[in-house]
Write a structure and sequence with these properties.
Layout: H1 17-33, E1 39-43, E2 57-63, H2 66-78, E3 83-84, E4 106-110, E5 118-124, H3 128-142, H4 147-158, H5 164-189, H6 193-196, H7 235-248
Parallel strand pairs: 2-5
Antiparallel strand pairs: 1-2, 3-4, 4-5
């Protein structure tokens, strides 16, 4: 395990203040970006009580049209210290044959500002990537017994990989595992994105209750190569995999 972990890979212990700060942040952003911002949600690990996380807030903004939102949001967000990032594609869950075009987004980031560091994900209302972010958050909130295993997985992984890109490449399939468990829970409980989003109303004509992702497991599917990684997985990465397996055991 590297003795010095990059600040980008720092996974901090859970901070009870994250919930309050996240609520204040989403309220400010909803006011700033209305009326195009239909919903503004605190997502990601800092939105889950007890979850270790990188000390960066993830926020999801739901819009009708990404191109329209990009043009309208860039100025107001720049005034708040945000920069538009080049990343426009979310990870499509392993085994899914869904059209990657349905998983597009816009991403603004804020770092080193007097206000909190933020990843601002702008996604189309009713899209599968908007739904996945909410389902992942709400399933973990409803299953606190799973939080320590996922938190430990991230902490071990952060010490096992050389950079943030590799960290994300390894973490994405584990998120897929959590979502595979969360989908039956969503069906059994009647969970829908429209019942969990706090800000605004569902836009007319959108399907906020999009169908389950339907991600079959294909054992013949080759492993996805990791960015910037070659050779056998290190011991720490194997430990991280064991932590991830505990989530669904």
């Amino acid at each position: 395990m590297p003795k010095d972990i990059s600040p980008d890979l720092l996974v901090a212990d859970s901070d009870p203040a994250w919930a309050t700060r996240g609520k204040a942040l989403t309220d400010r952003l909803h006011e700033l970006l209305a009326p195009l911002a239909l919903h503004v949600e605190h997502i990601g690990s800092t939105s889950v009580p007890g979850m270790a996380a990188k000390p960066v807030f993830d926020v999801q903004v739901s819009v009708r049209d990404l191109q329209e939102a990009q043009g309208a949001f860039d100025g107001p967000l720049a005034g708040q210290g945000f920069e538009l990032a080049p990343y426009r594609q979310d990870h499509v869950p392993a085994g899914s044959d869904d059209d990657p075009a349905r998983w597009t987004k816009r991403l603004w980031v804020r770092r080193g500002h007097q206000e909190p560091d933020v990843n601002l994900h702008v996604r189309v209302a009713g899209s599968p990537n908007e739904r996945l972010a909410l389902l992942f958050r709400d399933w973990l909130r409803a299953h606190p017994e799973a939080v320590p295993a996922y938190a430990r997985f991230k902490q071990v992984l952060a010490g096992a990989v050389p950079d943030l890109a590799t960290y994300a490449d390894v973490k994405d399939p584990v998120v897929d595992l959590v979502v595979a468990v969360a989908e039956p829970w969503a069906r059994e409980t009647g969970w829908r994105p429209s019942t969990t989003m706090a800000a605004g109303r569902a836009p007319a004509g959108s399907d906020l209750g999009a169908p389950a992702l339907g991600v079959p497991v294909d054992p013949r599917r080759p492993a996805v190569p990791l960015h910037g990684w070659s050779g056998p997985p290190p011991y720490e990465a194997v430990q991280a995999t064991h932590c991830a397996t505990a989530l669904v055991a």
